[in-house]
Amino acid sequence: MKIKEMIAKRTAEELTSQSIINLGIGIPTLVANYLDEENYYLHTENGLLGVTSVEEADVDPLLVNAGKLPVGEAVGASYFHSADSFAMIRGGHVDVAILGALQVDEKGTVANWAVPGKGIIGVGGAMDLLTGANQIIITMGHVSKDGSPKFVDTCTFPITSTRKADIIVTDLAVFKWKDHGYELVELMGEATLEEVEKNTTATYRVSEVLLRKEKNR
């Protein structure tokens, strides 16, 4: 399984049936491949609740998600103005937002909209989702293209919101915010505790369950 698909599949396991879920650009969009569309409600901030996948032959160029990717509409889907969509987000009516990130730090702060020195379009809906959604899941590669850690002690890129990310899923590990810090609860694929430590500058603790599991390998 490809790395991005592995992250998406594991992320889908965290979702509760009947949830309203907003999927960000990139890896988050792949999460839909692992959901029973009849049991989840996918939301896009440009104004659709009931997003589904669409076959190429059925693509409507006017029907896209916030990332401008073609989407389909579920039976009973609802359309609304983007202002109403953001009112849903800001009002706490989106259960889960799944977002990509450039960096997440040990305090849970997310940076996912700008790289210093590079052109940007704008922060988009990320800051609203980070503030308004009831749960935040971050999906990302554990390191950047140059090999530098993305789970860091302090974000060096412009932050998106001071809201903490609840769960981080990377190609190496799954971290959950518990008792004022992140806990490593699961290793992904063939990753090891040593590999995660080597590629992380954030402070975290390893769950007792995972430690026992690794000792018994």
TrEMBL record:
InterPro entries: 3-oxoacid_CoA-transf_B, CoA_trans_fam_I, NagB/RpiA_transferase-like
The UniProt record lists the keyword Transferase: yes
Key word Transferase present: yes
Record-linked SMART domains: CoA_trans
Keywords, ordered alphabetically: Transferase
Molecular function GO terms recorded: CoA-transferase activity
Any Pfam family hit: CoA_trans
Family: Belongs to the 3-oxoacid CoA-transferase subunit B family.
Record protein name field: 3-oxoacid CoA-transferase
Organism: Pseudogracilibacillus auburnensis
